[in-house]
Specification:
The longest helix is centred in the C-terminal third of the chain and has 20 residues. The chain has a single domain, classed as Thymidylate synthase/dCMP hydroxymethylase domain (Thymidylate Synthase, Chain A), CATH 3.30.572. The chain has 10 helices and 7 strands. It is α/β, with parallel strands linked by helices. Strands 1, 2, 3, 4, 5, 6 and 7 form a 7-stranded mixed beta sheet that branches.
């Protein structure tokens, strides 16, 4: 198994055995949940965190992250690769809580562009913080919308010549959302590292509410019994990946996908993993 497979499998085991089972009123499903789960993977040493214990989408999280970098809430670019966000779209076809829009426009400041400029000027800075959650408008009776951000902040630090990213998620569906989000933010980390001329280091993923839905219990039980001899996966980014994504180059999605797909030999999909809405 890959290093990430082992990390992920241990997280699922922990939630199944130690998780508190309660009813989630929004979805009507029970969940087993634990607070404050954190995992880390050193991308340089342990490879890119792509789950191989079951087949999962690769192209859609790549396209999503490239779309985030563009700072858009119009989904035209994204929908060329995936329709996964369609159920959350507003009547005008936009995604109100689009993470990239939040990073680059929503607060009246280009946070992502400012972060890059900051670390180019001062690689030792500890001020590389990006905020996605808007306390004025998300939750707490804010503007009604079909979706609010789950990953609500991340920090970027360069330590020892390597770029480290720490993503904090308020709520993570461990069977579907966690592996997907991990691909996206680890990819962003690698693209930022390349942009800044350093190596991608440790990816840290902290979850305030890590849960497994009851309709995923059987799948979770299955995945903790699975094993394989898959080697760690190494991401080979095309040159100028961040800039190409920012300029809406569609080919960058295909190139990154082709690289990862060529190394990816997962176990079969697990049936019954439907999103709990």
């Amino acid at each position: 198994m890959t290093t990430f497979d082992t990390i992920y499998q241990n997280l699922i085991k922990k939630i199944l055995t130690e998780g508190i089972e309660e009813l989630n009123e929004r979805t009507g499903y029970k969940t087993k949940a634990l607070p404050g789960l954190t995992f880390q993977i050193d991308i340089e040493r342990d490879g890119f965190p792509l789950l191989t214990l079951r087949k999962q989408p690769i192209k859609s999280p790549i396209a999503e992250q490239c779309w985030f970098i563009q700072g858009e809430k119009d989904t035209t670019y994204l929908r060329k690769f995936t329709k996964m966000w369609d159920k959350f779209l507003e009547e005008d076809g936009t995604l109100a809580s689009a993470y990239g829009w939040r990073w680059r426009h929503h607060f009246g400041k280009d946070q992502l562009g400012s972060l890059i400029a900051l670390l180019q000027k001062d690689p030792s800075s500890r001020h590389g913080v990006i905020i996605t959650w808007d306390p004025k408008d998300d939750g707490y009776g804010g503007t009604p919308k079909k979706n609010v951000p789950c990953p609500y902040t991340f920090t970027v630090n360069i330590i020892g010549g390597r770029l480290h990213l720490h993503s904090v998620i308020r709520s993570n569906d461990m069977m579907l959302g966690c592996p997907f989000d991990t691909i996206g933010f680890a990819l962003l980390q690698c693209m930022l590292a390349q942009k800044l001329g350093v190596i991608a280091g440790v990816y840290t993923h902290t979850i305030s509410n890590a849960h497994i839905y009851e309709n995923h219990y059987a799948g979770a039980e299955e995945i903790i019994t699975r094993t394989n001899d898959h080697k760690n996966i190494t991401l080979h980014l095309p040159e100028n990946a961040f800039d190409r994504a920012e300029k809406k180059d569609e080919a960058i999605v295909e190139e990154i996908f082709t690289d990862l797909q060529s190394q990816y030999n997962p176990l079969p999909p697990i049936t019954g993993l439907e999103i709990a809405l």
